[in-house]
Amino acid sequence: MSESADGDHSREGGRRTARAVARAGLRLGPWPLSVALVGTASAHAGSLGGATASATVPTWLTVLTGGIVVGATFLFTTLLTDHDAMRGVNWWRVAVPTPANVRRGLVRLAQAVSVGLLALVLVTGLVGPTTSTRNFALLFVWAGWWAGYTMTTYLVGNTWPALDPWRAIAGGLRWGLATLLDIGASRRRDERSADGGVATGRRFALGSASLPEGWGVWPAVVGLLSLVFLEVVSPIGTNSRALALVVLAYSVVTVAGALVYGRAWFDRVDPVSRVFATYGRVAPVQRDADGISIRLPGTAATEEILPDRPGETAFVVALLWVTTYDGLVSTPLWARLLTPIAEAGVPAVIVYVFVLLAGFGIFLGVYRVASREIRERADTYVTVDEIERWFAPALVPIAAGYHVAHFLGYFLTLAPALGAVTLAPFAPPNTVVLVLPDWFGSVKLACVLLGHVLAVWVAHSLAFELFPGVLAAIRSQVPSVVVMVFYTMVSLWVITQPYVAPPFV
Amino acid sequence: MSTKLPAPVTHVPADEEPIAACPHCERPFRSVHARDLHVGEVHGADATETESERYERALETERDDLWLFHAKAVIGLGVTYATSVILYMVVLGGFL
Fold it and tell me: Contact A78/B58, CB-based, under 8 Å?
């Protein structure tokens, strides 16, 4: 633990400071292999009485090693060709008995707590202390929810439908309004029947409006890109007042949307619900038709392909891209490239938007090209769209692995502050931040790699379900593995870069 | 064991006649080999005797090809492993 971090945070907010702290650990820390190798080398040197200078692994080799591990994982999975055995692993599950009334009670309790927390975020955001590491709203939203809670959605299970405060509020409002309208309608009906008129009983149907089918889940894709853009360029990461206003606006829009469009809103528009639902696909705890079951991590993604709706693939690709984008704009290279552009008079915000959209386009394009290649190699009549939807679940573990790498350090760094401030949100004490040990950097790299390794397995399993035989399925995976190797290397490079707050915004 | 996933959407280009199609679910295939494997894997329970025989033959072909492929994969793994170790030795030894 370091001394109080409650210093002058007026310019650099707690969130960014903490991320800088988290990343600094990485900059100093060598990569796990180097720790192991250096350790052995010096021990041997010591026993021989010689003196050897210890060397650290350069970044390029770290990055290359990541690519090699993913490639080797693919070669290794090609040796696993017993389809029934693969299904045995992928379909393994333990059912957890959950009586309906217990589940309902827990959901009610969770909803009450989450609505309370939402109110607390709004209040402390608007009137709480402005110091980042003492403000409940900032700590809770960024460290507690966006970093910590999101991790539980893929490491444990997607509990968001039960916890979503906006769903709870909308549900409560809908029930209240329906009751009121019912009373009103029956009263009108009574009056009319008293007059001898015909009771038409015209009732305003809540949640019955429908979104155009052709939009599919594209509204959620737009929503996700907008949210991440807002997170990167606006001061909501450091300014609690701005954050509270954004949360308030989001609440109004979400509740109104849910009242008008009903469940479809959370399924097709609300980006937050969709992010958690997507991450939940790889979680070990899954909700089935007959309750809750525990699976091996990632295996649930091998049993369900994306529905045939516009934008379904794009959303998963967008989720992958925004995690990369978030890291990319805080690298020193980005700052170096952006400086001359900004000095030439181009508004930085435009560059941020452009790169966000262009990068998303490139990711979508690469995924499309890889899917076409898969079609060619597997020599099949299955459509390219279908191949895209079929293999998209394999991208989720990659996004999850990258999310852990990006946010675990940040969450741990701020966890003591979050705990202290949660106990006294209105009179927060001075807080401390956790300083992570040097080896923590290697944990992050391992998370990125683990995500890719799991993705190779999921794609391998899905290919066996799609293409008959063994060889077609294996050969079909070559294009995606090539893409994955490059993507791993890019991700690892971003992770090994020191943190620089996104400049000019 | 049957699959839990739906049958995939297929599309045969207008200028192409599918080489083979599944007699049970009409899914088109670019090769007889793939069709035979599909029938055995997905419709194994309803397959006729001829279809089962064709499936066995297709599996035999797969096994032969797979042996060669696996030999290449194992060599690939070995080469990758050896190259990585040498690379690390060179870099950590300070020769680079």
Answer: no
Report the C-alpha gap between A19 and A17 in whole angstroms: 5
Q: Which of B5, B12, B41 sits opposite A468 (nearest CB)?
A: B41
CA B46, CA B21: separation in Å to the nearest integer?
16
Sheet holding A291-295, edge to edge: A93-96, A291-295, A285-288
Question: How far B83 CA sits from the closest chain A CA (Å)?
Answer: 10
Per-residue pLDDT tens digits for A136-178: 999 999 999 999 999 999 999 999 999 999 999 999 998 898 8
Identify the sign of the CA torsion A245, A251, A257, A263: positive
Residue A293 pairs with which residues in a beta bridge? A95, A286
Q: Is B53 helix (H, G, I), strand (E, B) or coil?
A: helix
Closest partner CB to B92 (pick from A55, A68, A379): A55
User: Cα(A380)–Cα(A502) distance, rounded to whole angstroms?
Assistant: 45
A464 contacts in chain B (CB < 8 Å): none
Nearest residue, CB atoms, B80 vs list A68, A83, A383: A68
Distance between CA atoms of A412 and A19, rounded to whole angstroms? Answer: 10
pTM, rounded to two decimals: 0.86
Beta-carbon separation of B73 and A79 below 8 A: yes
Residue-range domain boundaries for chain B: 20-92
Structure confidence by residue, pLDDT tens digits, A94-122: 998 888 888 899 999 999 999 999 999 99
* Closest to A6 measured CA to CA, from A437, A500, A416, A433: A433
**pLDDT tens digit string along A457-501?**
999 999 999 999 899 999 999 999 999 999 999 999 998 898 888
Residues in B touching A84 (Cβ below 8 Å)? 1
**Residue among A57, A386, A474 minimizing CB distance to B8:** A386
In 3D, which of A67, A64, A63, A57 has the Cα closest to residue A35? A57
Band (A456; pLDDT cuts 50, 70, 90): very high
Amino acid at A7: G
Which residues from chain A sit within 8 angstroms of residue B81, using beta carbons? 72
Phi/psi at A487 (5° precision): -65, -40
A304 φ, ψ to 5°? -140, 120
Q: In B, residues 27-86, which contact A (CB 8 Å cutoff)?
A: 27-31, 33-35, 37-38, 41-42, 58, 62, 65-66, 69-70, 73-74, 76-77, 80-81, 84
In SS3 terms, A347-399 reads as CHHHHHHHHHHHHHHHHHHHHHHHHHHHHHHHCCCECHHHHHHHHHHHHHHHH
For the record, the structure tokens of A500 come out as 């620089």
Q: Which two tokens stand for residue A417?
A: 């502050």
Instruction: For chain B, give the number of residues.
Output: 96
Q: Please identify which residue in the block is written with the tokens 């009485």.
A: A49
Answer whether B92 sits within 8 Å of A37, measured CB to CB: yes
